[in-house]
Each structure stands twice: as structure tokens, then as C-alpha cells.
User: Fold these one by one.
Assistant:
Number 1:
Amino acid sequence: PKTYPLANTGAQMILSPQGFIRPLLARPGSPFGPRFHPILKYWRPHNGNDWGAACGVPLYAAQSGTVVKAGWQGGFGNYVIIDHGVIGGKSVMTGYAHQQKMVVRAGQRVEMGQHIGYVGTTGLSTGCHLHLQVYENGTPVDPMRYIP
């Protein structure tokens, strides 16, 4: 498989057929789809994947794009959204929730593999993890369609 270097780490990340990398050195956990919310205690859509990792683990842009949000967003806590433009005829954005600290700002251009923040547990969260979202034309889809 094709690989891509991760910023300032020496690590090589596998590149998906759509041209995305994993946003951290971890494995996905809680999948996309309906689930019983561990805090709210009722069934609701889980519109992303959770990636368990220690607080403070660096997060990286899964693809190049422009940061359209970097700030607090309710249950997502510290949240970064990156607009990747049109891919395969669809507008694609990624969202990175619950960050301990964000190191990018809205309007900033980022490159794939660039450091964007740190794993945290801000917002509606039971522990340190990344909640990763992918949006196609504004609608959440399973991130594993894009992330290797």
C-alpha cells in the first residue's frame, strides 16, 4: 500500500484509496451507527468513530484542506473541522472532537499529516479519545469509508 510521512515523527501512515491517512497512531473503537449513549443513557446515532488514546496524544489532519472551525462546540468540546473540497464529486469535511488543545485556527490551510491538536476528553465524553467524523455534502458518513 501507499504510505505518507507523518509530520515530524518519522512514522509512515498508510494512504487510503481516497487519499486519507489515520489522524493518530491508534485503532478505531466505537463504530459509526446507532448506539446506547454512555452518558445520556438512550439510543441515538453515533455519527463518527471513537479512537481510544491517552490524553495529549497528537492529532493530525487526515487530508489537506482549510480549517473552517476550531473552537468549542457543545458535546464535541474542543472541535476542529477541516474542509477538503470536492472528492469523488462530493464535498468532504472531517471533524475532530473532544480535543485537549487545538493548535490550528479557522481559515488556516493545513496539509495532510500536519499536527492539528491533542487527544482529550472535553465536552460530552467518558474518557480520553478522538471522536472522528466525516461529512459528505454536510451529512455524516462512516469515517471508515475514507480512513485506512
Note: The radius of gyration is 14 Å.
Number 2:
Amino acid sequence: MAWGDPYIAMVDEDEVFDPAVHCRFDLEVERIEFGPSSEDEFATFQIDVRPPEGGLANPGKKQWAFFSYLHRNGNVYFLAKGKVDAFPLGGDPESATLLFKCAPGDWEAAQLVVLQATKNEGHYDDVLIASDKRDDPVELLDGQSRVIAFHPATHAVGLHDIFGVGLDVIDFGLEWYDDSLSAEVTAPALEEVEVNVTATWKQMLSGIVFATNAVEEAFEDVVATLTPDDFENRWPRVGDGLANANGYSVRSSSLVRTYPAGQPEKAGPFQGSSDNYQYITDSNLTAKEARPVELPIVYYDPDISLSWSAEQTRTERIKIVLRSGAQDTSLGKGGRQVIDLDCQDVTIDDVTPAWKSSTYYSVGAVVRQGSANWRRVSAGMSAATWGLDFKRVDTTSFPPVLVQNWEKQELDASPLGGVHLDRYLTTVRGHRTLLAAAMRGRAVLADSMRAVEITVEVPLDDAIEKGLWIGKVARFTIPRSRLAIEGDFLEGKVTAYRMTISADDDDHICSITIKCALGSGKATPAPAGTVSTSLTGDDWDVVALPSVSALEPSPMNAGGVIRANVENAVADQIAYIEERDYDPAAGRTDDNATDPSKLISDVPTNLSFDLVPLASDDKLLLEAEIISAIPFEGPRQIDLGGAA
């Protein structure tokens, strides 16, 4: 063995690396290339070997390999553990290429555990993610400016900030090959990101209107009529809708005849023809004369209440403009990128458990039933149906009485807090959604800030001894005039590297690629009165938005009685008959046309209601635009001399 030798040991997946055991040459290696091609991919090691004998997929052959390296300092470095990902079936009799991927067998579950732990951070809000995507790594990473990384040797999983915040810094100084330096501005950093957040839901209101007073006021406190049968038939009954007043129905109703003291029992007298009103006292029954006629007045004690329900579609749309603090260079402006985000249904409460039958509920238990939450007020086993469980017979009292098991809660655990509420994005909970949306914009700004890509080659032994992998930040000292930058160093998170070892070449090398951020590096605190968050906690990493809590939504119409109207009250009925009853002097001599008992049928007493209309606009819209209170500054990992 000599320093620089790459050891390849074919192993079982569950083996643990031991240099005393695994520093061996299970494969005769001619050349090996090792590393990830990008920061969001698994590292691989590709080896050129003499063609293996037998099928590599044979169950008897080991599929995993340890890759280790004997350093010139005498130490063995365990670099990678991988599984065969690609192998040749044949062809070249002299050489074959095997590709090993450094991914653990349970990598999907492992990365999900790490990502789940970030759900309590400001970038995450399940309102912005469909319910079936809330464990999707792509969705969980959105807004984080981080990448999942698995160490190629240990397979430990980590979540790395793309600027390298929290990662160890490897300082190569001047230990890099001068002729290998490549520097490129990949694209101008964005100036702004526009994030449009839209929340749409149906506001649902319901209530009870007690209309008895309105009825009594319409009758001037005395509810009476000369047409009692018709009035009673027209009186609204429980469950009836009210004319064209969509959304209203009769909740309770009663109409009881009364005999109030001091009120007249009859109206009149009116005049009718003696042909219709004959009396045995008439001396001549054939004589045609006017006869007095009285009609009974019927009085009532009414009681009526209405229930109402209404729906109103609401849409809130907030435009957030995030400004970048990237260095203002002469390389051109990156312009604005637009992101459109639609909130999920903010009325859905997926926290409160649904009511279940045959389940014991203690006092205070809260369940979801229909569109509301309900609190248990008496302990016990639930019935077979909600309707049966809502009330129970209390046999501890005599006589037994019906008691209510559940009471409706004003609020629920939905993001909105209840379907009756008229605002979301302007609330405290809504500001959390706006910040999470803004963090998605911040992620776009952050990625665009990493606009400078640097690639250099360094001695392989230096890279290995310093523990190079994508979970590091690399710093390089740059001689003056070598690059058009201010200062004498630059740094950035490692995004790719490639270690190359050839059997016939002792001058092994490692190519390293980093991305440097063009941020200002300024410490900019959130102004008072704003809502803010930060991903890294660094002074240059603050997203601050003006509060929109003062915005007022258009109100939705709530149910109510404007007035009750009486058509043909008793006084009107009396006046109508008096103008048309039997009166030969006035020329009204038709027996039937002037008959008071028939005339009254022309003017039945009728009750109607003027109600608050529940129908409104198809959609009530609240719109606003807010501009970030401060720019997202970002780190200054390379200084191009632009304004800070």
C-alpha cells in the first residue's frame, strides 16, 4: 500500500467501516472520480476497473462498496459508501465502468424526518399547500433556501442553507492551481419578486329575527281583523319561506284569539238591503229598506320569529413586492419575477376531531360536526346519530326533561376561525400566511443572489484532509488583479466537487465549485409596526412586511326585519265597506254588491314583511399592495464594488 491508493471494499449494506478490515482492493481500480455534480444530488463514485466476472446483480454478489483513501499524512479517510447504480453487461474486454450512488436505502424517510421538523418555522404554512402535498419534500423545501444533503460516507442527512449559514468554513488560502480558476456571473440578481396571495372562501351567516314587535307596531299595538278565517289561513307557519325573501324561513309561529277588555267587539253598523237582511218584526216583509249590519272584530295575540342563513363569496388578494439588497453593479438588472399563490380553503378545520357515535366524551370535549365545533356539556357515551346525541332525557329529575349534550362554539380551529368571519389575510393568522408567502419570494431572491460561480482545482490531499463535501463553505484567497473584485478573498457554499484519482498519476486533483452571494451584507432590522421573520437569524436576513390589519372588508348583509306591513287593517276594512254598502240615496241599491258580509271579502287583512335582502354581489373583493419594509439584504460573499 502507498499513499494515494484508493481502497474499494465490497460490503453488505449494514456493515460499519473499519480501516483495519476495509482497506483492501476488492476491485482493481484504474481510475476513480468521486463527488456530486450539484448540491441537490447524491454524491457518486465512478470507477474504471477490469471487467468483473459474473453478473453483478447476482444475489451472491455484494452490491455495496466502501471507498477510502490513504493520505500522505498516514491517515485513512473514509470517503464514501455507495451501492452499484450502473454497470456494464459487457463490451470492452480491457475495462469497465461502475457507478456507485452514495444514498442510504431509507433516504426518502430520512429526509422527510428532517423536513417535518421545519414546519414550525416562518417559511411554512399549510394554508399554502394542498392537503395531499404537505409531506411532499418539494413543497416542504419551498421557501427555505435550503437543500437536503446526505454525507457520502456516513449517510447522515442534513438541511443546508444555500449561503452556507451554520456550515464549517474550509479556508484553502492560496492553495489552489492558478490556471484552473474559472469565474462566471451566471445571471444578474433579481431586483424584486412579486408574490400574489389570494384567499377565497364562502362566508356563512345565520341568525334569528324576532318579528312579533314589528307585527304589533304595524297594527298599532292591536292585532285585529274583520276577516279572521282568511287572516289565520295566511298566517306564516313553521318552516314556511317568506315570499321571495330567499334565505328566510319561519322558525316559530303562533296566533291566539284574545278578547281584550275595552275593545269593541263589532264594527258597524253598516247598511245592507232588507232583501238580504230580513227581520220577522217587519210589518211588510216585501218592503225593500236599508237594514243595520255589524261584523265581528277578532283580536289576536301573535308570536313569530324567523331564521335566516346566507352565503357570500369573499376573495382577498394581497400583492407583496419584495426588494433585493443585492449589490447594484453595472452588469444589468435582473428585473422582477412574479409568483402566484392560492390559499387552500381557509374554512377547513382539520385539527378538531369529527364527532363519532358510540364514543365516550368527557365534559369539555370538542368535536367537529357540520360546519361548526361543539363542546360537550355532560359526560357520557354518544348515541348512534348526531341528532339523537344532541339531546338526552335527564331521568334524574321529575318529570324527566330533555337536556342538551352539546353547545355550539363561536370559533373553530380552521385558519379562518369560523365560516361566519369576514376577513383572513388581515388577521394575525393571515399575516402568518403572508410571511410564509413572502419567504417563497425571499427564496427566489436568495437563489438569484448566488449569481457568481467559481470553480478551482486544489490538491486532492488538501481537500480530503479538510473534510471537503457539499456540507461546507469554501474560502479562497485571490491575488489582486486576478479577478475584478474588491478585497482579496471570496467564499461560498460548495455546490459541486470532483475528486479524481488515476492509478498511473500521483498528482491527484480535486475540482471545487462554489456559488458566491452578491448580497449587501447590511444589518437591517425590521421597523416597528411590521410583521417579520428570518430563516437564518442573521442580521442581513430579515423579511419585514407592513401590517394590513387596518384594511376593512365590505360588510355582508345580515338578516333582519325592516318593517312589517299590514294591508287592510280594521279601519281600512270599515272605510271600504262604508263607501260601498247599501244606500239608495247614493244610488247603491244592488243587494249583493252592497252586502257588507260580501264586501269584506274584497279587503282581507294581509300581513307582509320587508326583510333585509341577503343576496349580495357575486363576490366581495378586498385588494391591496404592500412593499417590503426593508430589502432582503443577503450576505456579501464576494465584493464586486457595488453599492451596499
Note: Residues 349-413 form a domain with the Seminal Fluid Protein  PDC-109 (Domain B) fold (CATH 2.10.10.20).
